[in-house]
Structures are given as structure tokens and as C-alpha cells.
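Hi support team,

I submitted a single chain yesterday and got back a structure, but I'm not sure I'm reading the C-alpha cell output correctly. Could someone confirm the output below corresponds to the sequence I sent? I've pasted both exactly as they appear in my results page.

Thanks,
R.
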Amino acid sequence: MQETAAQNRMKKSRRLIIIGVIVVFVIIMAMSSVTTINSGSVGVVSIFGAVKEVPLYEGLHTVIPFVTTVTKMDTRTQGVEAVCAAASKDLQTISTTIVVNYHVTEATAPKLYASVGRDFQKVIIVPAIQESVKAVVAQYSAEELITKRQLVSTSIAEKLSAKINSYGLIIEGFNITNLEFSDSFNAAIEAKQTAQQEALKAEQDLNRIKIEAEQTVVNAKAQADATRAAADAQAYSIDIIQKQLAQSGAYIEYQKIQKWNGELPQVMGDSTPIIDFREKTTATTTP
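Hi R., thanks for writing in. Yes, this is the structure output for that exact sequence:
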């Protein structure tokens, strides 16, 4: 009887274990048959390794456990930074830092995953950035890369879009955050700027000297005109006086007055005795 009771307990224990395993299996199966896709992502469905073209969108979905695999891919805006080296049209070495914001389209996520996998930044985007930068930079001189930076940026972004759009990768923003040149080119640019500044200063000095010279000429002309006007006025005044006096009997007296030095004559003579008007000195004798 004792052995039978022990056997019964063992049988019960086995049944409990089996039931527990079944419950766990059922729970696992239930959990494996349901998947949740969060907002900002899609699920790429693979059945025995074959990727389905239609993704799973956000929400709760049922799948076949151990047969179906769901890989979640982010469709929100992402960023990637790439450092690129390129040669300009005039063979200057250029180093650039590019920052690209992009997102994966939901409908093409399965195709991207099937052809590239999840490491598409390293496999597709960064190489495409470097190739686009080299192709565009080669069309401009080093100086034009500075003066036409916005145009260069737009051209690179357009070329990059043409390369990655077919994978369902859409560019939202493109920025050249750094643009570096060789030391020799930087020195040449600095020397050119210095020369331009000196040339501008020389031109300004020349204009200043020219203006000062013109002002001197104008002042001299004005002074000469003033002198000539004064002389003309004086001559006109004299002419008027002479004409008026010529018509007057006092003209001769006027001429005498003009020629008189202001001294009285010392002697006067004619038919009358000569009278000496000089001041006589009385001699004084000592008694």
C-alpha cells in the first residue's frame, strides 16, 4: 500500500510538470503569435527567411510563431555625419564635413531590408555622400567653393538624392558644416585679401589726392577770377572818372592835384622878381 501511494504521488507530480510545461508552451506560443509595432516604425515580415513586400504598420498584429520573423525598422528622421576629402577643379585638396537628415519610407522598408539589411547607413548613405561630394567639388575651383557655397550644397544634395531615393531613403536636410582647405591655399587667400586691401587703400589715397588737387585748382581759379574782377572794377571806375573830368574844366586842376607831391615851390619866377620862400636863418653873433 505504501508503494502504491508513493507511485501515485509521483504520477501526480509528473502530471503537474507536464501541465506546467504545456501552460508555459501555450503562453510562449501566445506571446510569439502577437507582435506590436510602435509609432515611427514598421515591421518587416520574413517567413522562413523570405521577406514579404508589405510591411506591418503600427499597432497589434498576429503572426505564426517560429515561422514568421518580424524585424522592426525606424521610419523617423535620422541623421548621419560623414567626413569627405575631395579635389577641386584647380586641384586643391578640400576636406568637408557633411550632415544629412533623412528617413526611411514605410512602403519601401521591406525592399531596403531585403537588399541591404539594417546597416544601410554604412553600406549606402555614407559612400553615396562621399561620391556626391567628390563629383560636385571637382566642378568648382577652391575659391568658388567659398563664394558659391550654397550652390555647391544644393548640387551635392540633389546628386545624393538621385543615388539613395531608389532605396526608399528620403533626404530632409543637407548641410556642409565644415569646409577646410590646405595651408598653402589659406596662405594664398590671405595674401590675396591683403593685396586687395592695399590696392583699395591706394585707390582711395589717389582719389583723395585728386580731389584735393581739384579743390586747389578751383580755389586758385576763384582767387584769380576775384582779382580780375577787382581790376576790372577799378579800371571801370577810373574810366568813368576820366570821362567825367574830361567834360569838366577842372580836369587840368585834377591832373595837377594827382601829380602834386604835396610840397610848396621854393621859388617862383616869371616877369616878377624872384621871391625866395625858403626859411631864412638869422645869424647870431656873439658880442
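A quick pointer for reading it: Residues 280-287 have pLDDT under 50 and may be disordered. Let us know if anything else looks off.

Best,
Support desk
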